[in-house]
Amino acid sequence: MQALIQKLKDNHHIFEKLFIFFILAQPFLDLLSYLGIPISNPVRLLVIPAGALYMLSYPNRRWSRNTLIYMLVLAVYFAINFGISMIYKDPVSAAGELTFILKTFFFITALLVYVMIFRHIGENREWKVIVPKYLFINTSVVSVVMLIAELTGTGKRSYDYLAKQGHSGWFFSGNEISAILGMGFCGAIIYYLFIKKGLAAQIICTALIAVMIWAMLTIGTKVAFGAALLVLGMAFLLLLIQAIIKRDSFIQAGVVLVLLAVTIFISPEMPIGNNLGLSVDMANEKAAQQQEQAEAPPLPEEAEEGEVPPPGSVRQWSSWQLMALNGREEFFGTVLYYFERAPVIQKVFGMGIGGNYTGKEPRIIEMDILDWFFGFGYLGTLILVLPLLFVTGSILVFIFKQRFRTVSPTALFSGVGACIGLGAAFIAGHILSSPASGFYLALFLGFLYGLLKQKPEKFFQ
Fold it and tell me: b or e along 262-291 (b: 16 or more beta carbons within 10 Å of the residue's beta carbon)?
């Protein structure tokens, strides 16, 4: 056993190279899934055992020991959560419960692995170029595929609701691709603006950036649209300051300003313009209907799927709550009702996916923090957020300890990418328990951790 561990330690760099290369595999795994080749989840879930082996081989003994202990505690907790769900839930799907657990386990493992990788290879400057380059390639692939789907009329609709517009190309989930584009665009901007390239490469990159912006408006979701405006606006301000201080970057600032202006100008005519207006109108209409009704409408005897809605799941919401929940108010009210009436053991260890549902299929809220809380309970949520609190807390300590001297444009936009991912997890879901998009959040947090742990350097190189 000792010889095996020593052999792993001697070859830990192989794991690091594989995990870095794994970044490039992401859009192609999602494409294969859409084409009916279901290997994306099995391949991504290999990260869990591979990550555990990397932790075992990690050169720093304290990090290796602590991460392995945490992984063991988390595995024991998940086993308890699964067992309680199988005992207390009726109906219950063992496959559904296990899938929810494994997808969540993937995100936590990926987060720890990439933090450890970038912490260890910090002195090697190549990764500061490789990661943004790979993110640029991935975001370009997703955007070009969406463009081909648009030209051929084969894109999958982002919403089942017919009044809403937009498509996600040849990818299954509009919310997932929206988050991927939002985070990936931050990495793409780093490569486009702050990594030196030849003139021909810069022209090609400009065209691809334009396609990315088009894709982010075409998907029709708020996360991608907000990310496009935020990133372009910040990039223009940075380049403008750099142009004033160093007397260069005027052309880059002008190009970014044109991209930002065009984005704002065409947005009302794009799917996102239609959907934003529709969301506001629907929220106001629902709030007005609720206010007009002195009593809640009688519940139907049976819903379309054969499930009787639980009393108490129909609640009164204000217009801003309806806007925040964005059509999820029924699911939130239902799961909250289940949680309020769940036994204490389920409140502590969680109710599993969808709570104590009574229909054929579980329904999640699709707001990750809430789904974690109801699915994994008080104890599980505490265990799961520990790595997030440690990583984000360490990042803030690095920033203030170095008095912002480690903050570079690369670190700044990596931080924006991480914030977009965390924000999407709160408001849109499909991040923390979704391997496709959760991977990028784990990557950005690990990348940012590694960047800010480095020695201070000039903001404008």
Answer: ebeeebeebbbbbbbebbeebbeebbeebe
Nearest to 461 by CA among 228, 125, 199, 136: 125
Rounded Cα distance between 363 and 306, Å, is 14
Q: pLDDT tens digits for 317-368?
A: 555 555 556 666 777 888 888 999 999 999 999 999 988 988 778 888 888 9
Give the DSSP letter string of 169-213.
TT-S-HHHHHHHHHHHHHHHHHHHHHS---HHHHHHHHHHHHHHH
Question: Does a cis peptide bond (omega within 30 degrees of 0) precede residue 91?
Answer: yes
pTM summary value: 0.89
Q: What is the pLDDT of residues 148-195, one digit of tens each?
A: 999 998 888 877 666 678 888 998 788 899 999 999 999 999 999 988
What is the Cα–Cα distance from 324 to 328, expressed in whole angstroms? 9
Dihedral, 387, 388, 390, 392 alpha carbons, nearest 10: 160
For residue 157, list its beta bridge partners.
Answer: 167
Q: What's phi and psi for 157, nearest 5 deg? A: -60, 140
Answer yes or no: are the C-beta atoms of 188 and 137 closer than 8 Å.
no
